[in-house]
Write the structure tokens for this entry.
Amino acid sequence: MKYALIILVVLLIVCGLPYRLGITRYHLSSARVKGELRICVMSDLHNDYYGKDMEKILKPIEDFSPDLILIPGDMVGDYARQNAYKLLKALGKYTTFYVTGNHEEYQKDPEGIISTVRSFGIHVPESTSEVLNIRGTEVEVGGIRCPHEVDKPTAEEVKKIFRTDAYRILLSHRPHWVDLYDECGIDLTVTGHAHGGQWRIPFTKQGIAAPNQGFFPKYTDGIIHLTHGDLLISRGLVRHYHRIPRLYNDPELIFLTVDKK
Ligand SMILES: [Fe+2]
């Protein structure tokens, strides 16, 4: 009986390991969009390795052919940076926006990281925004660097970033500031940070723990429809966070299409 239980536990762990990169597809509609927007979202790579030249991530992106790539932080970690930089450099050929996560901000040189990422041609908004025209749709993309939890910005500070009536997108690392995002009324807020709850109860979407949310966190993935706008939470790409593997929670690349309502 004892051995059967041990075998069962080992099997449960082995079956839940993060063997593959999951592709999650979402669809949204907006009256501000003419035609279709194709958006790729990724976060929380933490320097993980995805094949030579990071092709396991780059190939599906090339096939999807996004108009925009949005990266809400925690890509560059606190040790070897070559995987993150290799990926970000390759993403410079797309229209890509990136903001820092807490892990970039906790390092000695967040300014150096930002400057390196910008050198790849990637936009790094710092409480600023840029207006783009994508096949006739005006899109305003803004972002905030990841502050400490206690330095959460006010809705007024976030609203000031935007200046148009375009389809507005906010990049912000922390997903659990739902009340803030709801108050801001941004069309789409893109976040990461929670890693899907790291371990999930098998065959459910319930994560075990996430930073700033504790055990059985509520905001770890998916799209949450707010009073005005939507909150998207990326589960992230890192497979072994501080050598602790994900369980029943594959790393994730998101392909979102937004079309005319
Ligand atoms: Fe992270």
